[in-house]
Amino acid sequence: MQKLSGCCLCEGIAYEIAGELGPIFNCHCSKCRRWHGAAFRTRATISTAQFRWIRGQKLLSRYYSSGFVVKHFCSACGSNLISTYDNELDKIGIPLGGLEQSPSNEPEGHIYVGSKSPWFKITDDLPQYDTWPGSHAKVRETR
Ligand SMILES: [Zn+2]
Ligand SMILES: [Zn+2]
């Protein structure tokens, strides 16, 4: 079984993920851009059972970015770690930037392209979605 690990910038907090990651998307929403200080956040959904903290849990801080989304980050170095969801307790959102290994799957598309940063140009051929790729999301034409 695939085992991945990751840590924060100061390495005070470390975590481990067992098994395959869920679908990986590059999220261009304004919250992800602000949280990561980047053009987009590459993230996957995993189940809570796959995830465990290895060390440093006492360094964790939390911030509610909406009524039910909790962002967990390192209080010492500010690294963004995981998202949890008060309305879906069995799921975790994990950004791939902190991983030390390459997961077995690759990004499948760009999401929330409707709120993409105006200065960033998507140059790959992955599918683009205005919002979350569900029944209501509109697929944008790629290039
Ligand atoms: Zn840290
Ligand atoms: Zn986002």
> CA-to-CA gap between the ends?
37 Å
Low-confidence stretches: none
Q: pLDDT average, as an integer?
A: 93
Largest sheet: 7 strands, mixed
Order of helices and strands: EEEHEEEEEEEEE
How do the strands of the widest beta sheet line up side by side? 6-7-8-9-4-3-10
Q: What percent of the residues sit in helical stretches (DSSP H or I)?
A: under 10%
Q: Please tell me the total number of domains.
A: 1
- Whole-number radius of gyration? 15 Å
Give the ligands present: zinc ion
CATH architecture: Beta Complex
Number of helices: 1
SS-derived structural category: mainly beta
* CATH class bucket: Mainly Beta
Taken from the alpha-carbon principal axes, the silhouette is: globular
Counted beta strands: 12
Structure description:
There is one protein chain. With 143 residues, the protein is mainly β. The protein has one domain (3-140): Metal Binding Protein, Guanine Nucleotide Exchange Factor, Chain A (Beta Complex), CATH 2.170.150. Helix content is 5%, strand content 40%. The protein is built from one helix and twelve strands. The protein has one helix at residues 30-36; strands at residues 3-7, 14-18, 24-27, 41-47, 51-55, 60-64, 69-74, 80-85, 91-95, 107-111, 128-129, 139-140. The strands form three sheets. The protein has a seven-stranded mixed β-sheet. The protein has a three-stranded antiparallel β-sheet with strand order 1-2-5, with no helix packed on it. Strand 1 (3-7) and strand 2 (14-18) form a beta hairpin. The chain is globular. The relative contact order is 0.22. The model has no long low-confidence stretch (mean pLDDT 93). The site of one zinc ion has 6 residues, from helix 1. The site of one zinc ion (ZN) has 6 residues, from helix 1.
